[in-house]
């Protein structure tokens, strides 16, 4: 399970616990097993309920490994990999599981090892390897008749696909889990995966009563982790609908029970949502308390969504209390966590696309080799057939080979086009946030070496939320595109122009003084104000507010330039909008949570 399946994957040990509860059998009421097959079955059954007894059984079998049959050897190796992983030795666990997944003779055992590997690789941020293993899992799935193993594989596939934004396939796997649970399992786990995928895909407009029934089933069957994860999603849904008090009620009622599960990833998700909810209710004390807990409980050295949310709330609290120095410190941590989190989200999506393209290219190469072999076979048969007929056949096959070559070229161009699209904003065609940061840092590094000044202009469209609410998102999108077109005509080829999100844009002006930057910003402001927002509504005009920061005052660090320019932009908003303000290094930046108020 992931902390928020467009965020970070969950702690592997807990996932192994909840998955393996579905794979274990009832306690053995007989005596101590003696045959290797019976010992392996017993160990597989008790590995969750009696980990020490499980370890003793494995230790005894390891001494007899040389006398085991191949099937027994691979089953022992799988349990060893599971044991290493449970103890936190992920390298040894991955090695053992890879051996089983690649070499075991039993397809069900290979399937189980592959499913466990997918989760382990996801936890380790080895997303491309995880998607390669997912493809292997999907190829084996039609042959798997073992209900419990298939149930495990469907769950891992649903979670990994959802984490990469492939929500339709993730939801399909979750529904299959709900429709065909194996003996001992219920709709609980599949419903939890489905609920999270729908919420992350922004398809959850109302709360289906089916999810509440599934939550009752989870509680009744003791699937506490999945029950509490569903509560986290339901609370987040209520918060998104403006029902913060309802979110607090749901989370506080189950938080104490969650602490006993020893599942820190889910606990930090609870705390992050509680921090946001209390802040929305104006309870700054509890907002700070749970934000600090979310930050402290997050996985060390990883930028998870609870961590960035916690820093964002802490910044809001300190800013509202007037603690400028503390607010600035938390804002810097928030921006660092936000960037790391967005990079991880992009890495998952890009890994899926790369593996998908590689599979298509490999299939095309296999087809090409098959065609070449067919050509060789037909060439040898020409001695026994009419020459003209044989030549015609070869021409047809050569044409097919040419078509396959063209397909390979097309796939390569598609890969290059995908890499280009990954750097561009889908609506406006300018740099997206990640690419703008990359390009701007490169230009600033050159400016620092050559001692040439640079300036950053931040601007966003005034009252843009009102435009969306009044005329609809289609008109809002047209307003954004018209505004970008106006700015493009006024910018130079060397300027870096990007969309940071929503209606907020940034421009880096290389080799530019603050006086020149102010003039350029004023030109952009007048151009936007003088242009009708859309062709369909020529009477609708939109203005923009601007904030400027220069390297002469702030240095060549992009983060500092953005912080100062953002503060100047907020002062422009407070001054009445449709104006330009120069940044000051003593400014405190505006809140990332007040974007709607600024619009």
Automatic annotation (TrEMBL):
Any matching Pfam family: GGDEF
GO MF annotations in UniProt: diguanylate cyclase activity
Cofactor entry: Mg(2+)
SMART domains membership: GGDEF
Signal peptide: 1-25
Gene3D superfamilies, per database record: 3.30.70.270, Tetratricopeptide repeat domain
Protein name (record): diguanylate cyclase
Top-level taxonomic group: Bacteria
EC number: 2.7.7.65
UniProt keyword terms in alphabetical order: Membrane, Signal, Transmembrane, Transmembrane helix
Coiled-coil regions, chain positions: none
Enzymatic reactions: 2 GTP = 3',3'-c-di-GMP + 2 diphosphate
BP GO annotations: cell adhesion involved in single-species biofilm formation; negative regulation of bacterial-type flagellum-dependent cell motility
Start and end residues of each GGDEF domain: 452-585
Database matches in InterPro entries: Diguanylate_Cyclase (IPR050469), GGDEF_dom (IPR000160), Nucleotide_cyclase (IPR029787), Rev_trsase/Diguanyl_cyclase (IPR043128), TPR-like_helical_dom_sf (IPR011990)
Transmembrane segments annotated in the record for this chain: 392-411
Organism: Luteibacter yeojuensis
GO cellular component, one term: plasma membrane
């Amino acid at each position: 399970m992931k902390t928020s399946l467009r965020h970070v994957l969950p702690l592997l040990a807990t996932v192994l616990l909840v998955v393996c509860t579905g794979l274990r059998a009832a306690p053995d009421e007989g005596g101590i097993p003696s045959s290797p097959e019976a010992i392996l079955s017993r160990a597989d059954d008790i590995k969750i309920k009696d980990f020490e007894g499980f370890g003793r059984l494995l230790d005894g079998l390891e001494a007899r490994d040389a006398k085991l049959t191949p099937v027994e050897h691979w089953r022992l190796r799988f349990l060893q990999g599971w044991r290493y992983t449970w103890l936190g030795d992920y390298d040894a666990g991955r090695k053992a599981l890879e051996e089983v997944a690649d070499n075991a003779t039993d397809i069900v055992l290979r399937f189980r090892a592959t499913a466990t590997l997918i989760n382990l690789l996801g936890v380790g941020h080895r997303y491309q390897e995880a998607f390669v293993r997912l493809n292997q899992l999907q190829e084996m799935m039609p042959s798997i008749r073992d209900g419990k193993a298939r149930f495990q594989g469907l769950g891992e596939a649903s979670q990994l696909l959802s984490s990469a934004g492939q929500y339709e396939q993730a939801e399909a796997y979750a529904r299959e889990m709900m429709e065909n649970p194996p003996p001992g399992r219920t709709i609980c786990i599949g419903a939890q995966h489905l609920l999270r995928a729908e919420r992350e895909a922004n398809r959850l407009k109302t709360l289906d009563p089916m999810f509440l029934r599934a939550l009752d089933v989870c509680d009744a069957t003791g699937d506490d982790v999945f029950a509490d994860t569903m509560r986290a999603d339901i609370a987040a849904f209520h918060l998104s609908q403006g029902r913060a008090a309802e979110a607090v009620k749901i989370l506080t009622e189950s938080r104490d029970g969650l602490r006993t599960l020893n599942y820190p990833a889910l606990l930090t998700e609870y705390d992050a949502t509680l921090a946001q909810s209390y802040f929305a209710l104006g309870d700054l004390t509890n907002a700070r308390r749970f934000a600090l807990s979310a930050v402290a409980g997050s996985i060390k050295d990883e930028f998870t969504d609870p961590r960035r949310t916690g820093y964002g709330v802490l910044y809001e609290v300190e800013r509202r209390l007037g603690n400028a120095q503390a607010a600035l410190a938390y804002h810097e941590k928030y921006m660092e966590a936000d960037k790391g989190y967005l990079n991880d989200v992009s890495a998952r999506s890009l890994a899926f696309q790369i593996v998908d393209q590689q599979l298509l290219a490999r299939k095309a190469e296999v087809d090409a080799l098959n065609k070449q072999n067919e050509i060789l076979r037909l060439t040898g048969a020409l001695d026994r057939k009419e020459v003209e007929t044989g030549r015609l056949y070869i021409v047809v096959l050569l044409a097919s080979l040419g078509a396959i070559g063209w397909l390979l070229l097309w796939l390569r161009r598609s890969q290059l086009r995908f890499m280009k699209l990954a750097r561009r904003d889908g609506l406006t065609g300018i740099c997206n946030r990640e690419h703008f940061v990359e390009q701007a840092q490169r230009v600033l590094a050159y400016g620092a070496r050559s001692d040439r000044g640079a300036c950053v202009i931040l601007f966003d469209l005034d009252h843009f939320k009102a435009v969306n609410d009044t005329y609809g998102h289609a008109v809002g999108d047209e307003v954004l595109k018209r505004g970008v077109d106006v700015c493009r005509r006024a910018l130079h080829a060397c300027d870096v122009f990007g969309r940071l999100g929503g209606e907020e844009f940034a421009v880096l002006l290389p080799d530019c003084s603050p006086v020149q930057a102010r003039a350029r910003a004023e030109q952009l402001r007048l151009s936007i104000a003088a242009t009708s927002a859309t062709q369909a509504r020529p009477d609708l005009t939109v203005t923009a507010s601007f904030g400027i920061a220069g390297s002469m005052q702030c240095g060549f660090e992009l983060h500092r330039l953005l912080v100062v320019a953002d503060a100047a932009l907020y002062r422009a908003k407070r001054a009445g909008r449709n104006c330009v303000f120069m940044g000051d290094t003593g400014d405190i930046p505006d809140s990332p949570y007040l974007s709607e108020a600024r619009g």
